[in-house]
Amino acid sequence: MPQTIYYAASTLNGFLASTDDSLDWLLQVPQDNALGAADAFMERVGVLVEGSATYEWMLRENDLLNHPERWQEFYGERPTFVFTSRELPLVPGADIRLISGEVGQHLAAISEAAGDRDIWVVGGGDLAGQFADAGALDEIIVTIAPATLAQGKPFLPRALSWRELELTGTRQIGRFAELSYAVRREEASVDEEPQVSALAINVQIPPALRWVDTRRDRSFELQTINVRLLPDGTLAAKAYGRPVEGGRGGYTPFAVPDRPELTQLISAAADQAGRLWASHR
Length: 281
Hints:
By secondary structure, the chain is an alpha/beta fold. Helices cover 26% and strands 32% of the residues. It folds into 2 domains: 4-183, Dihydrofolate Reductase, subunit A (3-Layer(aba) Sandwich), CATH 3.40.430; 199-280, no CATH class. It has 7 helices and 15 strands. A hairpin with an 8-residue loop joins strand 14 (235-243) and strand 15.
């Protein structure tokens, strides 16, 4: 099963980036052996996950829209999931998948894309925090640079106690110090009732029931429905699709139309998921 790893650099006083999302403080530090360490880490990685600010920084810093071949040099054929609430330009030839919503909705798809390798949460810090909130963060590797910022974007804007972080490794890499932590799940007391915020399942839409919808003059074939069981017992559903013309466009969400056959599909999927959960006990 793939491990989800938040691997990023931080200033000595805990900032991931400046307030305007700049990493100049990091790029000014002589890298020495740091690039070799990053290359070794990439051997573990099967899929990248990042927020829109991180993705846009990559586009600007490496001029990827004008030089898309650089993406392959850096990341190879690995799929990249970008959490965003808006449309973003895609690097030609790269497997970029634009997604939105809660982390938990997409864990199954991200894990499937990773195969037998690990998931790299590139940033930002709040997205890594969302993985931690969902109980889906397994490891944190922080490379501490010899630099500080008066203010900026925090490395991980969450409160994790010492019980949740187990130090598993330390090493010096040139001018950097690298710390590795396993993220441990705090077990609830036997007297506490677990608080479940939502359960989610992904349902493949049979070809006969698929439909086409449009967004910004692009047509999408809807292929999957994500169904969430909310705390009040109601179901919430969104459909996801790919561009009809093909290519590697984002996996884009749409509303599910009010059709009896789709309602029946969602209900049957929820019943099957309930049976699977019951048999898992």
